[in-house]
Amino acid sequence: MSVVHKGILRYSLNERIVHWIAGLAYVYQLLTGLAFYSPHLFWIAILLGGGPTSRFWHPWVGLLFTAVLFWMFDIWRRDMRITDADRAWEKAMPHYIRNEDEDLPPIDRFNIGQKYFFWVMLYAGILMLLSGLLLWFPESIPWGARYLRYAAILLHVSAALLSIGAFIIHVYMGTAMVRGGFTSIIRGEVTPAWAKMHHRLWYDRITGTTPTRR
Amino acid sequence: MSIGPLQIKAISGHAGTVPGRDTSRDYDVCKVVDVTTCIGCKACEVACLEWNGYPFRQTVFDNTYQTMPDLAWNYYNLIRFNEHTASDGTFSWLMRKDQCMHCADPGCLRACPADGAIVQYANGIVDFQQEYCIGCQYCVTGCPFNIPKFNSETKKVHKCTLCSDRVGVGLEPACIKACPTGCLHFGSKDDMKDLAERRAQQLREHTSHTNAGVYDPSGVGGTHVIYVLHDINNPEAYGGLPSNPRVPWTVRLWKGPLKWLGNLAMVGGIIGVTLHYLRFGPKQAPSDQAEGRP
Hints:
The complex is a heterodimer of chains A (about 210) and B (about 290). Chain A has about 210 residues and is mainly alpha-helical. Chain A has a single domain (about 10-205), classed as Fumarate Reductase Cytochrome B subunit. Chain A has ten helices and two strands, in the order βααααααααβαα. Chain A has helices at about 15-35, 45, 50-75, 85-90, 95, 110-135, 145-175, 180-185, 190-200, 200-205; strands at about 10, 190. A two-stranded antiparallel sheet of chain A has the order 1-2. In chain A, α9 crosses α10 (about 200-205). In chain A, about 30% of the residues are buried. With about 290 residues, chain B is α+β, with helices and mostly antiparallel strands. Chain B folds into two domains: about 30-250, 2-Layer Sandwich (Alpha-Beta Plaits), CATH 3.30.70.20; about 255-290. Helix content of chain B is about 30%, strand content about 15%. The termini of chain B are far apart. The interface between A and B is large, with 51 and 46 residues.
């Protein structure tokens, strides 16, 4: 590589693996879920091997996805705590949206948007797991408790839609908007300038630099 | 597809008018179950198994006249038995032939996501097409009568077909043929409704069942299987027949407004991020630009 600077490790191999298992599992769930969501999208199930095949794998991949979510929770829960620095940054978020990053207060390893994404996916994942289990075995729910099934239908689709909203923003920011973000989750490294610009407190912490205020 | 018998419209070289021409024919079919004359012999259960080619299941004794606890994927038709004590202390054995009600507004069909897996014929029969079924069991949740049953080996859901394969060629359902007491009748919805109402009136006027009535619940748009009950105010006593069945409101919300809201939100989200990119573009770290990296 012809880079003059030394890259900074942002995501360990473990973190990258966990991210991509979750990502691929989520995309499978998204595609098969959309096929069952709308008759106009049922063709996706045909492309993925047919309706019965899609229906067969959807709950199993869902189990994989939620298992990986819990693994992620174990790895990232400390990094994902929302701090006072995040609150200050959140107030200045309109600057972030307008790409006026010089007007933003410094933050640690993740910004509050990433943290919200993490928590939304975690809680939506738990809701989808619980409601999904009810939808997987509806006949095992006694007729007297059928309201659980009715609630599961609404919960499953609502949590899914919520996660899709978060997912659209996540994919857009990770691939198109924040340059350097996509390569960091593949190869693990970012440039020092990238780290300073986006996550100043994190940069200071891991490089041992004295915290500086701009 | 059930088309009913052929009706002549014109005859070649025929003098005068065609017999039966311009008469209207009601294709809506209906089964009446008069529970007041059911003796619980289960001949309809046997006829159903024979016609559909399923083996007889082992019975389960539970100290009552009930032979089996529930319907099954290969058991479409079950007499539900209840020992009922009325408010005046009179005791009765209630027998109700339980099967798919063939709702005019079928919750199973509303909930089903698989193209062609559930069809409703113009004659009112709601039929599952197992070759298109994906085994999601949303129909199980959509049904207000707890009818569809899942075969976990083939991953297909089954229920009473109202013998669509018999009705389509002008025959009665198999259960009707087997009933020895005349408690089952089959015909057009109008005729059967009339028959059921007359029987209920007879019960009210000539017996002590002054609350006798016809169960044809409007919450699901009426059904193509209707009951004559001794007490129309207490359908729950007949093995849990719901007093006001409706397609669950969460199913209606999910398949109605929520779907459109969700579609709008998803398309809106994609449009939103696209507009953001067009307006503000990407976020680049300073040295990335300096070194000409993407």
